[in-house]
Write a structure and sequence with these properties.
- With 64 residues, this protein is mainly alpha-helical.
- It folds into 2 domains: 33 residues, no CATH class; 29 residues.
- 62% of the residues lie in helices and 0% in strands.
Length: 64
């Protein structure tokens, strides 16, 4: 990746900003970090998912 003297790649990406975002992401401190995991976990009915998976496995055996 070619860089010019101002800390940007030839396509204009700010290298320092990308490094900061990567560091935040790795530490779990990004602005949206954890947001989706919590949201989906709170809306997922585990028993329902297990039941549907079991039904799908049974149906798969019948369709073969």
């Amino acid at each position: 990746m070619a860089q010019n003297n101002r800390g940007k790649t030839t396509s204009g990406t700010n290298i320092q900003e990308v490094r900061q975002q990567n560091a935040q992401s790795a530490q779990g401190q990004g602005a949206t970090s954890g947001q989706f995991g919590t949201e989906f976990a709170s809306e997922t009915n585990v028993q329902d998912v297990k039941k549907r998976n079991q039904q799908a496995e049974q149906n798969k055996g019948q369709n073969s």
